[in-house]
Design a protein that fits this description.
Layout: H1 6-28, H2 31-51, H3 64-80, H4 90-96, H5 101-109, H6 111-131, H7 135-139, H8 147-157, H9 160-190, H10 194-220, H11 231-249, E1 262-266, H12 279-286, E2 292-299, E3 305-307, E4 312-313, E5 321-322, H13 328-334, H14 340-349, E6 354-358, H15 368-375, H16 377-380, E7 386-389, H17 392-401, E8 406-410, E9 425-429, H18 435-440, E10 447-451, H19 456-465, E11 469-472, H20 475-479, H21 485-488, H22 496-500
Parallel strand pairs: 1-2, 1-11, 2-6, 6-7, 7-8, 8-9, 9-10, 10-11
Antiparallel strand pairs: 2-3, 4-5
Helix pairs in contact: 1-2, 1-10, 1-11, 2-3, 9-10, 10-11, 12-14, 15-17
Length: 501
């Protein structure tokens, strides 16, 4: 354990500086600024780790080789901490990743394989790093051992039991962070008070990074003890908590008076009262006159567009087959099929605008968007129908053919700097949408919807974050939802789960 009394003060100072850096990035939304702030972050984190080393190690002279080794190790630890929130910086980094339309589509289509592969690689990398977690202490010891020899010493010094204890320490941290955030959120739900809400934000931004940093230091440097009998530490901590509270109060992420929500009926169904993507459901629910019915279409191999959500259909004695590899005749042989052309005619006759999701797979025809626009040009222009999809190239094809048709990007994974993509609106997956992502998507010029919000909690959260509308299976519930910013602002505290976990 490190007995240097300066370390708790340095940890608290680190938390205050990180809060200030996040406040700056939240306000300015600059990728270049974020790079500078991350350099400051790495420098500060390296200093904290070095000073927190067991007493005597941090008094050794740092050679240039050891200094390089220290900061390479710090950068690696920062990368490993990204899935754990990186003290609130992960959301910024995720939203700043440069992404082209083609890259966005490819990653989204192949998201399951990519996410599973990255999870396996991450767990392996974290496990190996925990196995050699004493590397930094050995590297910065008086011994002038080389980099490779230090790695071997760290591996020999570790054990299976130590590895298990390290995983448990991370699990303990995750549980503690979750409990702190949800506990404070629950308290605010019970007591609606704006002052308490701002103090709660400050408390989360103060306590949670300390918990996370203490865990990191415990694993890779030295356990830190906070001597709360020290009056100076109480005063310094109190002033720092006040500072983080003031910064939080000045933050742009304090909610906004909800806009009137555009209610979008998911797959044309309200509260399970029909079968999704069918003309029967469209007829039944168009009588409620909600602004949009959202529905899904797939293209067959012979270029017919059918109403269907899933990419595959079951064929007897075969594995599930992708619709765009089968002819319309084959699909009809085994399944009831409704053509999009018929669906569109009924929607126009009922005066029901649609948001049409054009489904995309790796086998989708390269000219699918152009063909779709050509086939349904007249019907799509009778009402203010819209088209959204994960397929950016297809959206641009439709826009070139039908300049007045609004196109939107659908997200399954909320990542990347989407503000550079030329669309009219976004339909964002609601669980992982954040205040920062919404503001990064240029909300003042482009409409933002979330999908699929079915719970009151999710509806409250999306509305208070400032979205324009919601895709939902519970249209009536959303229509009758009464939202009061001062009373319901507590739901925004749940966003800290995205920031810190």
């Amino acid at each position: 354990m490190n007995s240097d009394r300066r370390v708790p003060f340095l940890i608290i100072l680190f938390v205050c500086i990180m809060t200030m850096l996040k406040w700056i990035q939240n306000g300015l939304h600059s990728s270049w600024l974020l790079m500078i702030l991350l350099l400051i972050f790495v420098g500060m984190l390296g200093s904290v780790i070095f000073i927190s080393l067991p007493r005597g190690f941090n008094q050794l002279k740092l050679t240039s080789k050891k200094l390089i080794g220290l900061y390479l190790a710090v950068i690696w630890l920062a990368i490993l901490w990204l899935p754990l929130g990186l003290f609130g910086f992960t959301n910024f980094i995720k939203a700043a990743i440069p992404v082209s339309g083609a890259m966005f589509t490819w990653i989204t289509v192949n998201r399951q394989v990519i996410v599973i592969s990255l999870m396996i690689l991450y767990l392996l990398a974290l496990g190996l790093t925990l196995r050699i977690r004493k590397f930094l202490v050995l590297l910065l010891s008086g011994d002038e051992a080389g980099f490779i020899r230090t790695l071997k010493l760290a591996w020999r010094d570790g054990s299976f039991g130590d590895l298990v204890r390290s995983w448990l320490a991370i699990l303990e941290m995750v549980v503690a962070v979750f409990a702190i955030i949800t506990g404070i959120t629950a308290f605010n739900h019970l007591i609606s008070n704006q002052t308490i809400w701002f103090i709660s934000k400050g408390l989360i931004n103060f306590v949670v990074p300390i918990v996370e940093l203490k865990t990191m230091l415990r694993l890779f440097s030295s356990s830190i003890h906070f001597d709360w009998k020290s009056g100076r530490l109480w005063v310094f901590g109190g002033v720092s908590l006040l500072l983080t509270t003031v910064i939080g109060a000045a933050n742009v992420n304090n909610g906004r008076p909800p806009r009137p929500q555009t209610i979008i009926v998911h797959r044309g169904v309200i509260d399970h009262n029909g079968t999704g993507n069918t003309i029967a459901a469209l007829k039944k629910n168009s009588r409620f006159h909600f602004p949009y019915v959202e529905m899904d279409i797939q293209e067959t191999k012979d270029h017919h567009f059918i109403c269907a959500h899933d990419d595959t259909v079951s064929i007897p004695h075969k594995r599930p087959q992708e619709i765009n590899t089968l002819s319309l005749k084959t699909v009809k042989k085994y399944h009831h099929v409704e053509l999009f052309g018929d669906y569109l005619k009924i929607a126009n006759r009922l005066h029901q605008p649609l948001i049409i999701e054009l489904k995309v797979t790796n086998q989708s025809d390269k000219q699918m968007g152009t063909r779709f626009a050509d086939q349904y040009r007249a019907g799509l222009q009778r009402l203010p129908h819209r088209v959204h999809s994960i397929g950016y190239a297809y959206l641009r094809q439709i826009k070139r053919q039908l300049p007045h048709t609004q196109i939107g990007l659908v997200t399954m994974l909320n990542f990347g700097d989407m503000s550079k993509l030329n669309v009219n609106f976004y339909t964002l997956e609601h669980y992982t949408v954040s205040n920062y992502l919404i503001r990064s998507a240029d909300i003042d010029q482009r409409q933002i919807y979330t999908w699929t919000d079915n719970s009151r909690l999710g509806m409250f959260r999306s509305a208070i974050m400032g979205v324009n509308g919601q895709v939902t299976d519970q249209a009536q519930k959303l229509a009758h939802l009464k939202i009061n910013l001062d009373r319901d602002r507590w739901v925004l505290l749940l966003n800290y789960l995205l920031d810190y976990l």
